[in-house]
Amino acid sequence: MPRQFAGMWNRIRGGWMFARYDHRQRDVELVMGSLHGDPRQLGVLVAFGRQLRADLVTGLREVIATGVWTEDWHVRAEAAQWRGNPRFRRFLEVDLEDRRNRGPKAEHLETALIPSPETATALRRLSDADCPQHCRADRVGSDFSVMSEQRTAEYREALFGWYAAIQYAHRTLVRSADWFADNPTSSAQFGTFGAMLAPPAPRQTWSDDKSADAWRELLLMMNAWSPYALEALSEILPGSAETPMFRGWGSGFEPAGRDEAHAAASALARVLTPRERDHVLAQVARIGQCDDAIAGAGYVETLVDDSLPCTSIVHGTFGDSSAERRECARARAAVMRAATRDDREDRRDHVARASVLLLGSRRDRVGHLVAHVRKQLATEVLDELPVHCREHAAELADVRKQCGFDEHKAAELAGISVATLQRLESGRAKAAPGKASCLGYLTLLAAASLEAGRAHACVPAALSSAVATSGFVME
């Protein structure tokens, strides 16, 4: 494309993207415009911000968890043009702007993720370290790739809606504070200024917990739009022990938002009660702590942390999925550790192999593990596997049951038929299957035993050693 037309094409493409996913943005503008001057507008804005931020976090986490971002045509076009691998950074660049008033910025997205460290960590692992972070679940794959356009649209609609909501945060707060301070009936109608953050629904159920949640959502919107919002509150509100330093965005030199932050903090200082002021300052400190944990001094430690369970709805089941969520978090952190430890030139191939062994569906992981073990074992050992299975058939069947596999599940994971599995465990010489079936069966039992922390003498030692050194079992 000629250079003189490149800028024009980028503007046309950006306008098309913005118009395609601006439904929720227009909803925000319509509602907030109709409530101009209404004292209920602050509660409506907080409700908007809460829902949009939750949808944005959920949408981004599902885009990462299912891996559908690789199906985005911008990502695929770049990978095809440069004959490289898909980059998640390219997926983000499509929607994020460099200038504050032209669309969502990366800082707007990162601020929305402050109360969700698990999603923020997954984003940084994938965008900064280029480390795969899709979920460890059998349902991730073809079923979710079909819904790639829908999930991508949900994320982008929430992103543009969030961008629209945060623009109203400071001015709506100032108008509401001025109305509360100047209207003689405001105290009789609302009691305290914090009650104005409640939605227009009946306020009989308005509690301290809901009030703290509403203040947090409002402060997050203010912090997303202005990098000086929380700092101004800490400086102007009386009772603050010290002025915390917050991570300013815009390279630290962007003056936009400074006057808005000062005006909002000054308006709040006029109307807050001492108790509300303490609540606000506590929320400011809590947001600052969460921000430091995500992007502060403990940034590297956070990237390899595996203590936060996965929050993706991929793991949603009718039963208790807490163990599955913790296992998924451990696997994603293990891939990140493998990426940070490896300093060889083939780092990308090494990370891709670790993600296949740890993050794929169990059937795919066992299949790749079988291929790895086949390369590690000597030909003599492979030739002896049918004889070994025949001599230890009953013991191997007991190991399978101890690992929690029925015949159908074990056959599916090992890549063999149920009839072949029954022949393996029968121990009859004439019914013994080939060495390929025996290798898949024994590899599955060896991997399951190592994951459970047990060792069985009926599993060949050479095969168990090859599985242990493959990286399939997390440390």
List keywords for this structure.
mainly alpha; 2 domains; elongated; 25 helices; about 475 residues; about 0% strand
Number of domains: 2
Label the overall shape: elongated
Q: Return the average pLDDT rounded to an integer.
A: 81
| Quaternary structure annotation | single chain
Number of helices: 25
Question: Helix- and strand-based class?
Answer: mainly alpha
Number of strands: 0
> How is the biggest beta sheet arranged?
none
Helix content: 55-70%
Order of helices and strands: HHHHHHHHHHHHHHHHHHHHHHHHH
Euclidean distance between termini CA atoms: 50 Å
Low-confidence stretches: 1-14, 243-253
Please tell me how large the radius of gyration is. Answer: 28 Å
The percent range for strand residues is: under 5%
